[in-house]
Known about the structure:
Blueprint: H1 2-21, E1 60-65, E2 70-75, H2 88-98, E3 104-106, H3 109-112, E4 126-128, H4 129-139, H5 142-153, H6 156-170, E5 186-190, E6 196-200, H7 205-218, H8 222-230, E7 233-237, E8 244-248, E9 260-268, E10 272-281, E11 284-291, H9 301-316, E12 317-321, E13 335-338, E14 350-351, E15 353-356, E16 363-367, E17 373-378, E18 382-383, E19 391-399, E20 402-411, H10 420-432
Parallel strand pairs: 13-18
Antiparallel strand pairs: 1-2, 1-11, 3-4, 5-6, 7-8, 9-10, 10-11, 12-16, 13-14, 15-20, 17-19, 19-20
Helix pairs in contact: 1-10, 2-4, 2-5, 4-5, 5-6, 7-8
Amino acid sequence: MKRILLNAVLAAMSACLAFGSGSPCLAKEEPYGHIMLSKRQNVNEEAETTIDKNQLHARSAVLMDADTGRVLFEKEGYEPLPMASTTKILTCILALENGSPDDVVEVSSYAASMPNVKLHIRKGERYKLLDLLHSLMLESHNDSAVAIAEHIGGSVEKFAGMMNEKAAKIGCKDSYFITPNGLDASQEVTSKDGSPKTAVHSTTARDLALIMSYCVKQSPKREEFLEITQAGSYQFSDLEGTRSFSCNNHNAFLNMMKGALSGKTGFTGNAGYCYVGALEREGRTFAVALLACGWPNNKTYKWADTKKLMKYGIENFNLADLSAEPVKEEWLAKIPVEKAQTKRLYGEAKAGVYVKDQEGAPTMLLKQGEKVQMRCSVKRRLSAPVQKDQEVGSIQYLMDETVVWERKICTKEGFERVDYAWYVRQALQGFFRL
């Protein structure tokens, strides 16, 4: 009996030495493996409704899914162009997020010197921020824009820095803001390689639509933004009560289509007529941005283009629940765990996995026949210790090569790593089972 016990302990010690020296008694850990399966778009060309880009008046146009930022249609939508007073949607949302409606704004001489269109505020006068925001968005007053910028940022230059920082955070890629009111402007800047260059106050239709989408869907101040931009008219006075003002909303689109949410017009000699607007219908939210949409006397071109794009979106794109796409069984196969403690010496350990959702599945707008691509990346092997709920992979949902949703693949159970004590216990248990 003593000899049998001695042999069992010696066997356990040999296994321990093999474990410690990296002997091939346990399989070597392999790098990540990937299981990939994609669903490609399958568009029915005969049933597809399209827009002839040549029929649009705008030089640059974008129709966007405001919930996801996906571009549904574009015509030169990534070309930087001046955007005139559509700039003011960013000025407004920044002021709402960084100020209080009851803030007192004192007018500087610089703000009072702005050209038409203007409220004709005067140096030293004081106004509530909320009142000036209505002046900004309903009548597009340039002097109110500067007064707001100086109050929020300390100066127009510092506020422009806030605008560029916010635009980048929202996801804008080709925008540069110099003024809070959208008047044509340029300045000398230093490029990434250190050389000087001239930057122009400009954006793209894609970036402008993205900013509008943020204003009406993502911003913590979206309700306040909508309340201001949807007001038909607004009356206020300076804090001393010596002057009274009345503003009327010039966004005619609000009365053109059912579900119109918000919008902002713009015009300068360089920019031409511009417009950015949003519409919500049956749970779907669309944003349209138009740049260089005609010059005088073609003021109505922007309304024709906006209605054409919105109608195209309404008639062709419907909400799709991404979670309805089935997950392949092979993506959730058990994963071998090396160097893991098991019930028996040299037993095989495998970790079960499950899909963990951090938040509810998003919906997105899809055209008939479109399919979301699904791509899975998961580890082929694990090495103990493994924690329960440990992330070991992900399932990505892509549209136009852009990830629109990601789900994590995690382990159902944990595994401790083998050690000397475990080997001895297994050897002893094996002896007593004899």
